[in-house]
Amino acid sequence: MNIVQEIFSNHSGWENIFQKGRVKKPQLVLVFGKRELVSQNHVYDDLKNKYPNASIILSSTAGEIVNSGFVENSIVATAIEFEHTKLKTCEVNIRDFNSSFEAATQIVSTLCQKELNHVFIVADGQLINGSELVSGLNQFKAKNVVTTGGLAGDEYDFNQTLVGLNNYPSEGNIVAIGFYGGRLKVGFGSRGGWDAFGPERIITKSKGNVLYELDNQNALELYKKYLGEAAEELPSSALFFPLSIKPEGTKEPLVRTILSICEETRSMTFAGSMPQGTIAQLMKHNSDRLIDGAEKAADYCLSDNNEQEPELAILISCVGRRIVLGQNIDEEIEVIRDQFGKKTLITGFYSYGEIAPFNKLSKSELHNQTMTITTMTEI
Questions:
Q1: pLDDT value, residue 192
Q2: Cis status, amide bond into 247, omega within 30 of 0
Q3: What does the CA dihedral 110, 314, 367, 166 come to, rounded to 10 degrees?
Q4: Which of 50, 164, 272, 345 has the fewest CB atoms inside 10 Å of its own CB, making it the most exposed?
């Protein structure tokens, strides 16, 4: 596997910041960047001219991760040349389907071919119901294929997220990459580090990913009570207090992040489904535990890879972690670097949702407030 990584800013233009081997004809280019930059047409045009035969996947972010750590107000492009692995990509738009589940079913139908090894997803972070999407993608599990990935971000604005495949990025898109062949070893790990507090409550009124009531009380008013003066900064301030839920059939609690609020309907929209009857509990951050969670995610990747140092690591971390860790944000990337070693190329972004299983035996889930890692090594 040969890899080259470049970074773009309005000030400096494109700069090469990492190279492993000689990249001649990369099959894949992962492009993660600030929405206002990645939406500029010249970005895709530049990369298409440089890598005419590659599948180019673009996504807006809530912050970028490069090999050296966290960056912002930039674009990171990572071109990957596989030696023994074949790829197939597809793109669907949520507006063409009745549900996110239905869109996922189309992806499964397109990619489910002989020797499918892994599927990586990048999807719109505002218009997609991530839980429905992942539920549909879990149809791959019948073929023993794991799905990982994440939802696009938009800094702290929660306004518009963009995703694209071999074209200018736009709203509503879901891009999937299928990796084929037995010589690609894929690892994954997803861990949080948040602490539950306060009483457990029951979701008594919800619809899809929109929450109305907890314990027959208006959920938005309850949140405002806990947030105090910070309630004026909703929805971003709610990232400090996500909700833990435990839907029926799941062994581990899932964390849900607020995407938006509606004062007119007194409701809160979350990144994933909020099923009625589910137990929910507020959570608060502990910076040390968040960083420890990132380290554990890397550990799990290594255990899945026979402790072998991976060639590529794609890090997708929640925007809420970026806000909470603040100036210490590089620490969660540094502990991962320490676990993997210097030879691993790191790329990734801060997201509105992360996709991965809890462990090797479980199906994929939509996570919030986690560090989720996908590693790849050709053998």
A1: 92
A2: no
A3: -40
A4: 50
SS3 9: strand
CB within 8 A of 223, min separation 6: which ones? 231, 234, 238, 241, 258, 268
**What is the C-alpha separation between 75 and 279, in angstroms, rounded?**
40
The residue behind tokens 């919030």 is: 368
Inter-CA distances, 325 with 70, 114, 159, 208, 241, Å: 12, 43, 22, 30, 14
Q: Which token pair is 190? A: 């997803």
**Consecutive H or E run containing 49:** helix 41-50
Q: Which residue has the tokens 């990913």?
A: 209
Gap between the Cα atoms of 80 and 89, Å rounded: 14
Q: Using an 8 Å Cβ cutoff, are 368 and 256 in contact?
A: yes
- pLDDT (tens digit per residue) in 234-244: 887 888 888 99
Question: Do 93 and 146 form a contact (C-beta atoms < 8 A)?
Answer: no
Residue appearing with tokens 């596997």: 1
Q: Which two tokens stand for residue 198?
A: 């306060």
pLDDT in tens, 181-191: 999 999 999 99
SS3 at position 84 = coil
Q: Say how far apart CA 357 and CA 355 lie, in whole Å.
A: 7
Residue 33 has pLDDT above 90, yes or no: yes
Chain centroid to CA 44: 21
- Beta strands 116-123; 146-151: pairing state: parallel
Pairing verdict, β 64-66 and 345-351: antiparallel
